[in-house]
Amino acid sequence: MSQFPPVETTVYSYECDAFGHLNQAAYLQVFERARWEILARGPGADLFDRNGVWPAVRRATVDYLLPAMPGDVLSVDAEVERLGSTSLELRQRAVRARDGKLLAELHIVFVTVDKEGKPKPLPAEIASIFAPRQSRVGELVRHGVGDVSLTAEVRGDGPALLLIHGFPLDHSLWAHQIATLKGWRRIAPDLRGCGDAQGPENAYSMATYADDLARLLDKLQVNRAVVAGLSMGGYIAFELLRRHRDRVHGLILVDTRADADTAEGRASRETMMELARKEGPGAVGERMLPRLLGRTTQRTQPHLVPQVKQMAARWSVPGVVGALTAMRDRPDSTPLLQTIDVPALVVVGQEDELTPPDLSRAMTAAIPSAAMTTIAAAGHLAPLEAPSAVSRLMAEFLEAVPRP
Ligand code: MLT
Questions:
Q1: pLDDT in tens, 284-335
Q2: What are 9-25's pLDDT values in tens digits?
Q3: 166 lines ligand 1 (CB under 6 A)
Q4: Under DSSP, is residue 169 helix (H, G, I), strand (E, B) or coil?
Q5: Annotated catalytic residue, options 17, 63, 332, 358
Q6: Ligand 1 near 383 CB (within 6 A)
Q7: Atom of ligand 1 nearest to the CA of 269
Q8: What angle do CA 67, 71, 74 make, to 5 degrees?
Q9: Does ligand 1 have an atom closer than 6 angstroms to the CB of 354?
């Protein structure tokens, strides 16, 4: 939905209570002041007046997450969540400017009324300003989903296809599929902690990633999507099935596995976390590179090496440590496989060393509806290494998926 750029406002001591926190009544005023400021900078503070209606508050709920103190500068945005025929739902977030921490969130419902207080249909000008943004050609959208904002590339129209990248990669892993899978609304987010998404500390698990994506689908007004996940993206797809099964309309598992980490695998996550803390996300990408790209790709497509390094460099340190923690602690998804009752496609690079083809064979055998294809001369990043082959396979699979 439409999102308006944040405005900044300072907390003054006279607004605070005996404990020195911004008090409750003042908080509502801060949100209200920011709303009017956003209107004044955008469509004009007289937007409602000039259209002969008034936005009357029907309900307001504030979640107070952390205290705001005198001198704090708050960055407050506003996002339209829903437009009714006579109503408007808005979410506003107050983020502390110095460290990006979310302090409070307001959910507020307005009814547009006339001078007598009778509900009036939203005038066309107001509806068009607050209407959902269309994504006909492809755009980067950014949405608040709980305690973070996620950026996603969204392209095309049609039923939704959610493309979840692996670690330590970003949404551009799917560039070919985003560009070519016409007839589908391709939604490729950067996961929390990656790219220009914020990277909070200690807030990562497969459940958190899955909930972020379910909220992102809400924001994009998507009920159900075919979910494609590569490697860690596959672990997240399994978690979406566990937590939000009704949102998953089909499944594409690429270079991934269902089992949990072994003791040895868990220990190597700790080593990687140490590396990330000491030398940064780039060093983790560098260490993993020889096993991310297949040996043929490394020889024949050396230009992909810097591309993968760039993706790794876009992660924040908390994001890398968080992803490694989430992968280390992820549950075994093997028992889930036999319960999968949506169309499923399993794709694996023949030279994938991180999640070798045998694992994909076992997964495919366990999923009642699954078919599997191996991609020759590709490693762990098949959609990037053999983009046309993977896109063609996905297109054929999507063709056969019943429309939601
Ligand atoms: C990935 O590609 O997402 C990771 O390599 C998966 C993993 O390390 O388990």
A1: 999 999 999 999 999 988 889 999 999 999 999 999 999 999 999 999 999 9
A2: 999 999 999 999 999 89
A3: yes
A4: coil
A5: 17
A6: no
A7: 8
A8: 65
A9: yes
Q: How many CB atoms lie within 10 A of CB 66?
A: 13
- ∠ CA 98-199-317, nearest 5°, is 105
DSSP string, 333-365: -HHHHTT--S-EEEEEETT-SSS-HHHHHHHHH
Print burial letters for 261-281: b (CB count within 10 Å at least 16), e (below 16).
beeeeeeebeebbebbeeebb
Instruction: Give the span between the Cα atoms of 240 and 295, in whole angstroms.
Output: 32
Q: What is the DSSP letter of 11?
A: P
Evaluated on CA atoms 18, 19, 22, 25, the torsion sign reads negative
CA 134 to centroid of ligand 1, rounded, Å: 33
The predicted model scores a pTM of 0.70
Catalytic, 17? Answer yes
With the most atoms of ligand 1 within 8 angstroms of its CB, the residue from 327, 329, 347, 384 to mutate is 327
Q: Is the CB of 173 under 6 A from ligand 1?
A: no
- What is the rounded CA–CA span in Å between residue 238 and residue 248? 10
**Rounded to 5°, angle at Cα 97 from 47 and 311:** 100
Q: Which DSSP string do the residues of 63-122 spell out, in sequence order?
A: EE-S---TTPEEEEEEEEEEE-SSEEEEEEEEEETTT--EEEEEEEEEEEE-TTS-B-PP
